[in-house]
């Protein structure tokens, strides 16, 4: 809860309320709807494709079970809910994990500043490591304004600083065989 609250405080002024609130709620995007044969005929069937994002604390199966209950309550008996791919279950590395401590210590050593960990609010490949029990932390340079948009950029100094943090994390994680 504390990590979610802190992340929301970081997100609200930069990205607005919706991304911040998404950390606590299921989000749904109806990305594709198709049905019918012609514009002047009643459609015999309709298909909708949803992108479903589930917050930490819930599982996709729980959300789908609730969706099915709601559809049944509406009398929508001619429906089918199916997954097109394996769900990306919510995941994170607990702040108490020793690897998180290594990363935070490296950030302090390189930057001289106290890091303030937050949750990554978007999907990433980190989940594949976590699904296999490998503690994973996302850290790197970014400018939130323009992230994943046209002309996305980072400052060179931030990139160099991140590389120094990565090197120190690798050294400390692998037994300190590199000079710190």
Write up this protein.
By secondary structure, the protein is mostly helical. Helix content is 39%, strand content 9%. Strands 1-2 form a two-stranded antiparallel sheet. α4 packs across α6. The two termini are 34 Å apart. The mean pLDDT is 86.
Essential attributes:
39% helix; mainly alpha
Write the layout of secondary structure elements.
Layout: H1 2-15, H2 17-21, E1 27-35, E2 46-53, H3 60-73, H4 98-111, H5 126-131, H6 156-173
Antiparallel strand pairs: 1-2
Helix pairs in contact: 4-6
- Proportion of helical residues: 25-40%
Strand fraction: 5-15%
Tell me the quaternary state.
single chain
Radius of gyration: 21 Å
User: What structural class do you assign from the helix and strand content?
Assistant: mainly alpha
Estimate the global geometry from the Cα principal axes.
Answer: elongated
Order of helices and strands: HHEEHHHH
User: Runs with pLDDT <50, length 5+?
Assistant: none
Total helical segments? 6
Largest sheet strand order = 1-2
Main sheet characteristics: 2 strands, antiparallel
Mean pLDDT: 86
List how many beta strands DSSP finds.
2
Give the end-to-end Cα distance, rounded to a whole number of Å: 34 Å
What's a concise summary of this model?
The chain has helices at residues 2-15, 17-21, 60-73, 98-111, 126-131, 156-173, and strands at 27-35, 46-53. The protein has 180 residues and is mainly alpha-helical.
